[in-house]
Amino acid sequence: xxxxxxxxxxxxxxxxxxxxxxxxxxxxxxxxxxxxxxxxxxxxxxxxxxxxxxxxxxxxxxxxxxxxxxxxxxxxxxxxxxxxxxxxxxxxxxxxxxxxxxxxxxxxxxxxxxxxxxxxxx
Length: 122
Hints:
By secondary structure, the chain is mainly beta. 13% of the residues lie in helices and 39% in strands. The chain has helices at residues 17-25, 111-117; strands at residues 2-6, 33-35, 42-45, 50-54, 59-65, 77-81, 86-88, 93-96, 99-110. The strands form 2 sheets. A 7-stranded antiparallel β-sheet has the order 1-6-8-9-5-4-3. The protein has a two-stranded antiparallel ribbon with strand order 2-7. The longest helix is centred in the first third of the chain and has 9 residues, at 17-25. It is globular, with a radius of gyration of 13 Å.
């Protein structure tokens, strides 16, 4: 199984180091997997090897893929493979275009705390 994370507008260019640092500040320790219900809520590229994936409005994960991936920050649509709504590092992958990029790290983000500190976030 897989779920698609789509946008209706082009993805922004690579995130700045400050933006990556903001998400990292609220990221917990690495975990092996996470579950989701039926579909994703949203996603945001944070550079060539990272993206934030929301499984609902407040549950977000910082996902890092292997370094051989090229162009993630410019992807219009990504898919995340999974088995029975369970995304697992080293087994599942972020796919876009013709690339299949295995997930090397998953870190849950305390998105509520991030929004509280940075009031301009959705």
